[in-house]
Amino acid sequence: MEGRVAVVTGGGKGVGAGISKLLAAEGAKVVFNYNSNPSLAEKTVEYIKQQGGEAYTCKVDVQYRDQVEAMMNKAVELYGGIDILVNNAAYQPNLDIDEYTEELYDQVMNINLGGYFRCMQAALPYLKQSKCPRIINISSVHAKRPGDFDVCYSMTKGGITMLTREAAVEFSKYGITVNAILPGGIIIEFKTGTTHRFKFKRIQRARTYNLRMPGMPEDVGNIVVFLASEKGGHINGASIRADKGAMLF
Amino acid sequence: MAFKHKVVLITDASQPAAGPIIKRLEKENLTVVKNYPRTGKKGRIDGEENAYAYDTWVLDDMEELLENIVKDIGPVNYLVHTDNVVYRALIEEISEEDFKQTLDYNTKSAFITTKVFAEHIAQNGGGAVVYLSSVHDEKPTGCAFAYSAGKGAVKMLCKEMALFFGRKGVRCNVVEMDMMKGQEELFDSLISPFNYDAQTKIPLRRLAEPEDFAGIVCFLLSDEASFINGADICVDGGHLLYYYDR
């Protein structure tokens, strides 16, 4: 990873921060944006620098092409190119279909699915010049299994599965691999998914190992590091479930 | 087949597969309401029975359509989302506007029609929703990525709605159509051989015809499918047996 450049959207907090920190720990120079929380982003930059890594953060709303392009250009200006794009920034208002307005639907689509598409398109000219180019899309287990807490969030994750597969096919001519990671519950500094409003009666089973334990942002970061490395080069168009087996229940 | 209710809305009657579905449902004595989006018009269509022109991805349009159907015909009991608009473009070359429009036609239309009609169906004794989608909600096209991304989203919409509206007596299912005869150029790809190989790989040794989807849509709406909810049914003659990731 030494000397490679990664752009991580939403890389300053939550799962994104875990990804940024681990990429930096492996020697990558990391550029990430924030939209709503500059202080957490600055903290992540500070942490990476304290550990001897390099990182830069800037305010970018992935809904806007000019801002996305400016971020990619900044990464190139600072570090000379882009080798790894990690699409991670997402918005999850936790609403049912009857609570969603048309405007909010547009916003969630435009951030979660549109943002991933926009960043891919903007990073592509630079990824094409990389010796080991990678795109990693952070999705969710709710790309496959309905979450029952946010209809549009799941819709965008279902869309990301297909965006990932199409990109894997289309960009193979440039040697770019494109994969998705589907995390289950992750412990982060702020609340995301609501708990189920319908309480199912659970039968207590003998538990030898708690498969339902939520993960940490670094658990996702480790998979990103592997996929971004040369060793991950044979994996393309895959959706990798990262939930400790929780979806088997 | 048995149907508890009477009125079914076809959201895009101009689609190739919609015609045979309409015929089949009329044969079952259902009142079929036909909507034609993307005409630039708004309102009832003169000269065609139970036909309207409204844009399916616009909330105001769909609310007006519901109001008109209830006034002219009666409550709606079944919804068939048939909007399938393939826009041929690669990720590298598509414009922001074309990307958004493709998602509006294929995905937002499913969301908005569900938001307006599924709740109405629930309030009128329950019923069913069928999303007539594509095998490209699983399998990349290599020529029309925004279409498959949009259909991937529709598949998750269906699963979420099967939970949300299933509790309210409205079943929601997806039918995944394979490429039809006559669509070879539409799905032609220089990258993926999937559709090119269809002629030789489909075990039934023919491409799909528009008529191939009418039976399953009719069945999923009927009382005979009363315990089928949240299913995605692939109607492809076995084509996707050659594809790994289902």
Low-confidence stretches of chain B: none
Helix residue percentage of chain B: 25-40%
Question: Regarding CATH, which class of chain A?
Answer: Alpha Beta
CATH class of chain B reads: Alpha Beta
Q: Based on CA inertia axes, which overall geometry of chain A fits?
A: globular
Q: What amount of the residues of chain B lies in strands? A: 15-25%
Question: What is the strand arrangement across the widest sheet of chain B?
Answer: 3-4-2-1-5-6-7-8
The number of helical segments of chain A is 7
Task: Give the SSE map.
The complex is a heterodimer of chains A (249) and B (246).
Chain A: E1 5-8, H1 14-25, E2 29-34, H2 38-50, E3 54-59, H3 65-79, E4 84-87, H4 102-112, H5 114-127, E5 134-138, H6 151-170, E6 177-183, H7 217-228, E7 239-242
Parallel strand pairs in A: 1-2, 1-4, 2-3, 4-5, 5-6, 6-7
Helix pairs in contact in A: 1-2, 1-7, 3-5, 4-6
Chain B: E1 7-10, H1 18-27, E2 31-35, E3 43-44, E4 51-53, H2 59-72, E5 78-81, H3 96-123, E6 127-134, H4 145-164, E7 170-177, H5 198-201, H6 214-221, E8 232-235
Parallel strand pairs in B: 1-2, 1-5, 2-4, 5-6, 6-7, 7-8
Antiparallel strand pairs in B: 3-4
Helix pairs in contact in B: 1-6, 2-3, 3-4
